[in-house]
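INFO  loader      accepted 1 record
INFO  loader      residues=394
INFO  predictor   begin
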Amino acid sequence: MSKDIIKFYPVDNGDTTLIKLRNNTTILFDCKIRSGEKNSDDYDIFDVKGDLLKTLEKRNNIPYLDMFALTHPDEDHCLGFEKHFYTGSPNDYNDKDKELIIVDELWVTPMVFTNNGVSNDDAKVIRKEARRRKKLYDENDEAKNDRGNRLIIVGYDGEDKLENILHYYPSDIVNEISGVKQDLFSFFIHAPLKADLVTGRAEKDKNTTSIVVQARFRINSDDEAAARLILGGDADHYNWEKILEKTEKHGNEEALKWDLFLAPHHCSWTYFNNVPIEEKEVNKIPQDYSVKIIKDYHLEGGQIIASSKLIKDNDDNPPHNQAKKEYIKNIDSKDDFISLAESPKPSKPEPVIFEVSSDGLNRIDDGESSTEDKLESAAAIGASSAVSGNWCKS
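INFO  predictor   done
INFO  writer      dumping tokens
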């Protein structure tokens, strides 16, 4: 494989983003793997697990990820983890575990280790697995660096209970995945910031503790990044205000540039201001710092990815129709706003895929090649729905 691949899975309100590097390193940010065949709009659900099994590398005929990052422990970011991912010592994997995916290196925030920070069953399974791996580090077990046992903490631990484990902090540049140095790929860590992890606000709103990173893809070691992707979980506008302030203060503006930007919290208004938007007149005004990250830091042709259900002109949040309009207002073209729920058509969404090559960033799925089908689907939904997307006729 000679090109890096970035794949955004259509999972309605939730995130599942796969990065497969040219050296076959595989990285997954969050997961939402659903059972059943239809979503809330009675449209087909894409088979995420089946596609992962076809895409991931195998070791001894066992599918694995080099790295899985849980941005924060909400259900829409880890649904299906217990059913589809292996937990426990990798040495105990056997035939009954067939098709369970091994995670070589697990990235979590300190929130995963708290009782109040974890409330759903899949997050509890991740917490149990993180604690299993933590014990190996605490006991300095030589197996701690084995594939399937590695653990990374992203963010500050206010009580130093995780001091034996490797931590990554905001402003760190990470170019090692599961113990292997990446010459042409790196992460810039933006968040979670210390203040968001150690205050009561974190306990009340796990979104504020989301891992936020910029992923950088290069073609040659001497080149600048050929593509930049920003992933921010469900971080809200308060988080982004501090991220912008901190990044500019320390001269790290390069870390805010983006070609692809995954709209936080599934295209929610929380990226731009408080909710509900109707509660106060001031809530209807996008914050300057949120707009600046979109308007001033997007590179030419930068594209917004909305990982959400269908965006309609109603009171839903997420996704939020006014947020979609605000994104489009501050990028180069409405065609650069991509709704995963609508590509290639609402009745049968499929992953949106980009490749990074010497030519730059290119979209390689067929989501732009079936306009007739898309318009037919839009008509079926009804004009009153005001469905969003990058294929509007006007």
